[in-house]
Every structure is written in C-alpha cells, then in structure tokens.
Amino acid sequence: MNSASLLGVGAVALAVLVTVYLLLTPSVRVPLERRRPGVAPTPGLLERGAGSLTTALGSVLNRRGGSTVGGALELAGIRMRLQDAAFLLLVATVVAGALGFVLSGPLIALLLAVFVPVAFRVWLRLRIRRRQAAFADQLEDTLQLIAGALRAGHSLLQALDSVAREAEEPTSEEFARVVNETRVGRDLATTLEETAARTGSQDFVWVTQAIAVNREVGGNLADVLDGVGKTIRERGQVRRQIKALAAEGKLSAIVLMALPFGIIGFLAVANPEYISAFTSSLIGFAMIGLCVVMLVIGGLWLRKTVRIRW
Question: Are 230 and 203 within 8 A, CB to CB?
C-alpha cells in the first residue's frame, strides 16, 4: 500500500472518529459545575479540536452570509447550529473523497466529494417540503381544534396554546413558537404572518388574514374559521388527487436521474479499468462533459414535466 493510500485510510479513520464523537455526544448535558461544585471541566483533545473548528466555521459563515443556510435548517426543523451542520458536512465530504480515492482513484474521489454537498442540499429541500406538506395536511384539524376551543370560551391565545400542546409536529412546534413570541410582546398578526411564510402555506395565509380582519371588525371567529376550513378541505382534496396522478411521473424522473450515478458507482467497484479509460484521453473528458450537459438538460426537462402548479 503506497503513501497516498495510507493517507486516504488515515483521513477516513479520523473523519469517522470525529463523526461518531459528534453523533454520540449528547447535545444537552448537566454542567459539571452543577454535578461537582468547585471542579472545573476539562475538555478532551478531540472536544477542544472540534469546538475550535466549529467556532472558526461559524465565524466564516457569519461573514459570508450563512443566514440563508441557517434559515433552511430552521425551515427543515433541524435543531442544530449552523457551524455544527457545516462541520458534519465537511467531515462527510472528506470521508467520501477519501473512500473514493482509496477504492478507485482521484476521479471517483472528486465525484463523491462533490456528490455529498449536493445530496445534503437535496435532502434538506426534501425535508423542508415534507415538513411544509405535513403542516398543510394538519391545518384542517388545527382549525377545528381552534374553533372548538373558541366555542368553549377560551381566548384566541389560549386556543393557539391548546394547538401547541395537543397537535402533532410540525404544527405543535410552529404554534408553540407563535404562543411564546406573543407572550414576550410580539404582535400576534405579525407572528402568524411569519409562520405562514416559514411553512409556505397559502391556506394558512388565508387563516392569518381571517384572524386579522376578525380582530379589527369583530364577529364570531369560530364560524369564520369553519368557513375557511371548508375551503381548505376542498383544496386539500384537489391537491391530493393531483399528487396521486403525478406520483408515477415523479418516480420515473427520480429513477432516470439516479441511474447514471448507480451505473458509474457499480463500474467503479466492479471494473475500475473501464472507468479509467474515460480519463486517459481528451476524447474521454469530452464525453464526460457532454454526458454532464445532457444530464443537466434532461433533469431540468423532467423537473418541468413532473412539477405541476395549480
């Protein structure tokens, strides 16, 4: 085994150790000064190194406008600091690149190192969409719960608090945030508007507008929410029907986009010489570039085909 392979194996081992440490370390601890008064905590070498690196990453991300990524983590419901997520992503990229270099060579190492951030971004978007879809599906039951609490004589804030305690996630989490922000002095209408923007729900925008109008002109808010809930129920039926009809096309698009990567990965492990032929001449690099361009065009075409707006 040459020195490059040893370096790759060492990078993989170090990255795996750091990842395991970060995943197994509890995020909430009882401070040592509470467990043993008078004893100063002594962090280990690995903990000090990880803490220094995450702090440096946080400083760099803050200077370069990392609020967008932090907002995406918040929309996805990931309770993790931006620098911790960036550190884990960096470790995963190093692991993937080192594994690719050890198994096949620099080309596969580069492809895997690029694939990890792209896959993380795709997973983050899917998680955001799934969370927003879950909020939209729970909105009908949420309105019924609010209307029932109002008819029982509770105030609007008490009704929202009952949703935060009794609803499922992500609705309970979002309404708990609404209640907490309102209790510290923020305007309820502004808080609800920000919740509608975070969840990306047009239906909840209508609910927010109905609550704002009712607070200005008065009236029976429970009956208003019942009417809005009926409209949302009908829209939900249409949305689920469209989703069912478009499911086959979306699955076909996913399979077609993943197939080239699966074939390349299989050939890289089963027959590396076959893949290396593409990196030994100018014609091979030209064919790789042409394949990438055609793959991007095909992906955009499939995305436009299976994405239905209504």
Answer: no
